[in-house]
Design brief:
Length: about 350
């Protein structure tokens, strides 16, 4: 029987990551736990060296934070077919608070001698996280690609990202063309690179449209429907006529908050999402969103990964992709509810598919 970390982990009653730490003499394992792992190894007849494959396996680890958000299955689908054409097999790892974390998966994948790893919206985008593990993996010759939000201290690792600043620029320009002046911004936690870039694009978009920025209209909550609902509950009393959200799921939360207050979308409030990975055409109302170019990004991710597999010294750029505005029914002309100093100036032109980077969905 071919040895597996799982065999040892199950026998010792610990996680695979713990077995990996013991095998590699890494810190963070209590002495009784270490002894239990070593005893399991002995009882199962495994030798330390036999648990580490001697060569790369043709497996590529894909680590995502969740699968509930359709963004991540969309990326997984785009990558799986392209990696298969390169003779590589995708191993999907979902990093959740209730299960194995990103660091655990990185250790297990390394011990299984994967050919490369792709991380999407992981801790590499968290400016407060310890990024040393990425440097260690790259220094060990393991091909890595980081997707969406490479922190500035990770410049030695290849990355692919959508232009998050352009996302909010497009959104603000669209809403301003509809006469909106008090435009709210619903972001995720501010510690993430992506949130900072979305904020910069929003500020730039407001400046380009000649609109006054009210700091109270920029909220930091959490990604997901709950975070969007909290943002909507905070923004609606401030007289916003439109809200730009950091994800489609946050947009759903804002719409829920609006309906709880008796408001209609888009008659009373325009709402925009970001990602456009799910069935936005079938939502009520169909959701206007800024779309990530999943297919183009998937191709770039595979190209960067295979370049490193072929040449360990390959360049490690951050490739940035332009998003596309997809106009649907959740946005419309500004309602006559704006604050007196921020009312419409009389320009009611509605720009949809004629805007650069825009199409109707």
């Amino acid at each position: 029987m071919k040895p597996r970390l799982k065999h040892v982990a199950d026998h010792a009653g610990v996680s695979q990551a713990t077995v990996s730490r013991v095998l590699n003499d890494r810190p963070g394992v209590a002495e009784p736990t270490r002894l239990a792992v070593l005893q399991a190894l002995s009882q199962l007849g495994y030798e330390h060296g036999r648990l580490r494959p001697a060569r790369r396996t043709g497996l590529v680890g894909l680590i995502v934070p969740e699968l509930d958000n359709p963004v991540f299955p969309r990326f997984a689908q785009a990558l799986e077919s392209r990696l298969a054409r390169e003779g590589l097999t995708t191993v999907l790892c979902t990093s959740t608070p209730a299960g194995m974390g990103e660091a655990d998966y990185l250790e297990v994948l390394q011990d299984h001698a994967v050919t490369g790893i792709v991380l999407i919206s992981g801790e590499h985008a968290d400016t407060t996280a310890d990024h040393q593990r990425y440097h260690d993996l790259r220094a060990g010759g393991l091909p890595l690609v980081l997707v969406n939000g490479r922190d500035e201290d990770l410049g030695d690792i290849a990355a692919v990202t959508v232009d998050h600043a352009e996302v909010t620029r497009l959104a603000v320009a669209h809403l301003a063309s509809l006469g909106h002046r008090r435009i709210g911004l619903a972001l995720g936690p501010s510690r993430y690179v992506t949130a900072a870039r979305l904020r910069l694009g929003y500020l730039d978009g407001m400046a380009r449209a000649g609109l006054v920025v009210d700091p109270a209209l920029m909220t930091d909550t959490i990604y997901g429907i709950e975070g969007g609902h909290a943002a909507g509950a905070a923004l609606l009393p401030l007289g916003v006529t439109a809200v730009v959200c950091a994800s489609d799921r946050m947009a759903l939360g804002v719409i829920r908050a609006a309906r709880e207050q008796g408001l209609e979308v888009p008659a009373d409030l325009s709402v925009m999402g970001f990602d456009d990975a799910g069935p936005n055409n079938f939502m009520d109302p169909p959701l206007t969103s800024v779309q990530q170019p999943f297919e183009s990004m998937g191709s770039a991710i595979v190209q960067l990964l295979t370049a490193q597999i072929t040449d360990a010294g390959a360049a490690t750029p951050e490739l940035t992709f332009r998003p596309e505005l997809v106009v649907r029914s959740s946005t419309g002309p500004a309602a006559e509810t704006a604050a007196p100093s921020e009312t419409d100036t009389g320009t009611d032109d509605v720009t949809t598919a004629s805007e650069p980077g825009t199409r109707t969905g």
